[in-house]
Amino acid sequence: MATSSREQEARDYLEKHRIMELLNYLTSNLLFFQPDKPREYLVSLLERLRLAKITGVAFPFLMDQSNIVAMFEMMDSSNKGTISFVQYKEALNTLGLCTADEVLKDDGHGITLDKFKQEVYKRTKEI
């Protein structure tokens, strides 16, 4: 019983401090940019996060608009101008901007590039 209590405490701690979201975000950026010196890159990201928190200045979003557009276009291979809700959720998950078990509302409409960009920027700012 003590083990399950400790496990629950650990899960609660990670959730409270959003550690898994942070790790997903860092990992996604690491895989997306694939820097030559990954440890230094991660330290730099964490330092920028720390400075942003101290100064209250928004954390610089590491994926610029062209990266987001390129990601959207890869998913919209038929050039319909929309992606499916499943693709949308998977993209957010891949970027570390949502968890696999997070419930997102599917309104039945395709996700446009503008909606995709808005959501990526909003969720990045929340992190």
pLDDT under 50 segments (min length 5)? none
Task: Write down the overall geometry.
Answer: globular
Number of helices: 6
| Computed Rg | 17 Å
| Relative strand content | under 5%
Task: Calculate the mean pLDDT score and round it.
Answer: 82
The N- to C-terminal Cα distance equals 34 Å
Q: Class by helix and strand content?
A: mainly alpha
Helix content: 55-70%
CATH architecture of the largest domain: Orthogonal Bundle
The strands making up the biggest β-sheet line up spatially as: 1-2
Largest sheet: 2 strands, antiparallel
Features:
mainly alpha; Recoverin, domain 1; 6 helices; 2 strands; 3% strand
Please describe what this structure looks like.
With 127 residues, the protein is mainly α. It has 2 domains: 6-55, cAMP-dependent Protein Kinase, Chain A (Up-down Bundle), CATH 1.20.890; 65-126, Orthogonal Bundle (Recoverin, domain 1), CATH 1.10.238. Helices cover 65% and strands 3% of the residues. It is built from 6 helices and 2 strands; from the N terminus they run H-H-H-H-E-H-E-H. It has helices at residues 2-16, 19-33, 38-55, 65-75, 85-94, 113-126, and strands spanning 82-83, 111-112. Helix 4 (65-75) packs across helix 6. The longest helix is centred in the middle third of the chain and has 18 residues, at 38-55. The protein is globular. The mean pLDDT is 82.
